[in-house]
Specification:
Strand order of the largest sheet: 2-1-3-4-5
Strand content: 15-25%
CATH class of the largest domain: Alpha Beta
CATH topology of the largest domain: pyruvate-formate lyase- activating enzyme
CATH superfamily of the largest domain: tm_1862 like domain
Largest sheet: 5 strands, parallel
Shape: globular
Number of domains: 3
Structural class: alpha/beta
Number of strands: 20
Distance between the termini: 53 Å
Helix content: 25-40%
CATH architecture of the largest domain: Alpha-Beta Horseshoe
Number of helices: 12
Bound molecules: iron/sulfur cluster
Length: 458
């Protein structure tokens, strides 16, 4: 039976007040966009309306109350946040129907309230954030990393995917707006920006890579310009964020971002969803940038930037996949030596063209191939991680533990080769007592297993 894909809930936003409130609004919208919400430009189309209020002056309070009143009258499903949220009783007394009231800078609470009011329908087939939810339906991104969504929709027609019919053609966000959002995130404590979209390398194709002014110079709506500018951002203490590119198809112009990685301007990491390697399967999948010379290009990229980590995902058991196709994929993986690999068994999604293809692969065979690809990629990963033992690598901390009986503090972090949630971890011992999530430490790698590294600050 085909899997049904839900359409995304829509959020309207009314943002009042000072530049700090605007940062909050952008931060909230960044997260909601990444969670799969669509934005509604008007009240009528919104499943829920957020009013980000200002409570600094009486006149601002009046303006905020008027905005809440208008949103209640026009839509009815309203969540209040921002400075006036600190006066929840006054708001509730006047507008008993508001769904939730949260205070200034309470990103997590307001995002949770939106999840409650208009739950995102979870689907691994359309979600861009991996495992973004726990069993309760909400798992919020810590503040030290942020997903930055640069476009909606997609111009391709992969036969297993219904995103283009669900989300429409590629619609790139203005590059100056994306950069402003990223700059504010970095100033507010984001140490790692994860660039996401359905097709990051196609960014700006729909607007012919139009130029916008950013600071004092023009930038093109293009992945390379975006990467360079993101790499140039600095926080209040002059620190650059890690910049990680996801969902990049290997179009020829992707070659231009590799030198930026070699220079240390962006994180040496590329997430390329190859999905398969066999030309026959890729043809039936109708994949973009399906070209024979990918292995040569991977080699060339590694020559320029030896530390580049390449992650990818693959589907096994696509209709018509023969044993020869699957073995071609395993051999290709031996050659490609990808650093991180996710594998999925093909499942039909309601409305996808692939469902009509002949020669469905039996479930038992899908399972067998899944086990074989996992074994292959685990062995490649283990060998690659062994080679890191003895090196000193920058590691971003995600969680810091409590001191044990000897006073040692452990922490969990990630190297530049590891994106949150989908890749491996670096387990640390003996981190400094004042360590906090988001800190970046130089770590000597002491040990490795199939997916993770172990070490201590050097
Ligand atoms: S590139 Fe293919 S798989 Fe990705 S969103 Fe577009 S149609 Fe779907």
């Amino acid at each position: 039976m085909a899997i049904e894909i839900p359409s995304p809930p829509k959020v309207g936003m009314v943002s009042l007040g000072c530049p700090k409130a605007l940062v909050d609004s952008e931060r909230i919208l960044t997260r909601l966009r990444a969670d799969g919400y669509a934005m509604s430009p008007d009240y009528a189309g919104a499943d829920v309306v957020l009013v980000n209020t200002c409570g600094f002056l009486d006149s601002a309070k009046e303006e905020s109350l008027a905005a809440i009143g208008e949103a209640i009258a026009e839509n009815g499903r309203v969540i209040v946040t921002g400075c006036m949220g600190n006066e929840a009783d006054a708001i509730r007394a006047r507008f008993p129907d508001v769904l939730a009231v949260t205070g200034a800078h309470q990103y997590e609470a307001v995002v949770e309230a939106v999840h409650d009011a208009a739950p995102p329908e979870l689907s691994p087939y359309v979600d861009l954030i991996p495992q973004a939810y726990d069993e309760a339906g909400v798992k919020l991104t810590p503040r030290h990393y942020s997903y930055l969504k640069i476009s909606e929709g997609c111009n391709h027609a992969c036969s297993f995917c219904i995103i283009p019919s669900l989300r429409g053609k590629l619609a790139s966000r203005r590059i100056d707006a994306v950069l402003r959002e990223a700059e504010k995130l970095v100033q507010a404590g984001t140490r790692e920006l994860l660039v996401i979209s359905q097709d990051t390398s196609a960014y700006g194709v729909d607007v012919r890579h139009e130029e916008r002014m950013w600071k004092d110079h023009p930038v093109r709506t293009h992945m390379t310009d975006l990467a360079r500018e993101l790499g140039g951002l600095r926080d209040g203490s002059g620190q650059a964020p890690w910049v990680r590119l996801h969902y990049v198809y290997p179009y020829p112009h992707v070659d231009a971002v590799i030198p930026l990685m070699a220079e240390g301007l962006i994180t040496p990491y590329l997430d390329i969803p190859f999905q398969h390697a066999s030309p026959a399967v890729l043809k039936r999948m109708k994949r973009p940038a399906n070209e024979a010379r990918v292995l040569e290009r991977l080699r060339a990229w590694r020559d320029i930037c030896p530390d580049i980590a390449i992650r990818s995902s693959f589907v096994v058991g696509f209709p018509g996949e023969t044993e020869a196709d699957f073995e071609y994929l395993l051999d290709w993986l031996d050659e490609a030596q990808l650093d991180r690999v996710g594998a999925f068994r093909f499942e039909p999604v309601a409305g996808a063209a692939a469902n009509d293809l002949p020669d469905a692969v039996p479930e038992s065979l899908k399972e067998e191939r899944y086990a074989r690809i996992m074994e292959k990629t685990a062995a490649i990963s283990a060998a690659k991680l062994q080679a890191r033992i003895g090196r000193v690598l920058p590691v971003i901390l995600d969680e810091v533990g409590e001191p044990d009986e000897d006073g040692d503090i452990g922490a969990t972090g990630r190297s530049q080769a590891d994106a949150p949630e989908i890749d491996g971890a670096v387990y640390l011992r003996n981190v400094p007592a004042d360590s906090a999530p988001g800190d970046i430490l130089n770590v000597r790698i002491e040990d490795a297993d199939e997916h993770d590294l172990f070490g201590a600050p050097s």
